[in-house]
Amino acid sequence: MAERDKTRGDLHYDVEPNAPLHAGxxxxxxxxxxxxxxxxxxxxxxxxAMAIGMAILWALGNxxxxxxxxxxxxxxxxxxxxxxxxDLKMRWDLTERRLLGPGGRAIGLxxxxxxxxxxxxxxxxxxxxxxxxxxxxxxxxxxxxxxxxVMAGGRP
Length: 156
Description:
Blueprint (H helix, E strand, L loop, with lengths): L1 E3 L6 E3 L13 E6 L2 H25 L6 H22 L3 E5 L2 E3 L5 E3 L3 E7 L2 E6 L4 E4 L5 H12 L5
Antiparallel strand pairs: 1-2, 3-4, 4-5, 5-6, 7-8, 8-9
Keywords: Membrane, Transmembrane, Transmembrane helix
C-alpha cells in the first residue's frame, strides 16, 4: 500500500512484496520487470502516440502536423524516464499458496478466477473482481503458465 512518510511528507510505494510469509510457506519463484521489454513497449507506445498526435493535428487542419510526432514522442519519453525507476524494480513472488505483489498485495491462489495476457502484461483477476497487473514480462505466456502450474499443485 502507498504510505505517506510523515517526516518528509512524500508518498512511498513498496515495489517489492512486503507481506509476511505464512508458516511453512516458501517463495517458489519471482517475476520481475524486464528492461528490454520495458523499452520495447515504450517504443511502440511512442510510435502510437506520434501517429495519433499527427492524425489529430491533420484532422484539425493544422499545417504543422509534424509537431504531433514531436509531442507524442516527448510525452512517452518523459513518462518512460519518470516511471522507469519504479517500474523496473517491481517484483511479484509466487509461493505454493499465494501470489505476493508490490504494496502489500497478497492473492491466494484459490482466489484467482482468471489469468489473462496482453503483450507483456499478465492480468490476474480474483473471484471478487480485483485485477492485478504483472507488467513488462519478457514472456507473459510463460509467466501465466507458471502461475497456473503452481495453482494446479505443481512446481514452477
